[in-house]
Amino acid sequence: MADVRTYTLIYVVLLILGTAKFVFFEIDIPESAAIGGTIVLAVIKSLLIAAYYQHLREEPRAITYMMVVAVFMVFLLTVAAGYSIQ
């Protein structure tokens, strides 16, 4: 199990990434680039939260792979729902 120092470091990184998402829309870059950057940062934040706060780093690889498949299936369902709405 990770120690308090690791959790504090991850928290600070998450705070910096959250602030960066705000900064993307405040600086003078195209909106599509800001949205793309925000999506990339959101994926990084999700991976950090799943790995450390949900303790997937310490689980057997089979559980991690099962979680990856589940997230991929949710992504496919979201794309399919978005396609059917159009």
UniProtKB/TrEMBL annotation:
Pfam families: COX4_pro. Its main location: membrane. It is a multi-pass membrane protein. The chain crosses the membrane at residues 7-27, 33-53, 65-85. It is found in: Cell membrane. One of its GO terms (cellular component) is plasma membrane. It comes from the Archaea. The keyword tRNA processing does not apply. Keywords: Cell membrane, Membrane, Transmembrane, Transmembrane helix. This is Cytochrome C oxidase subunit IV.
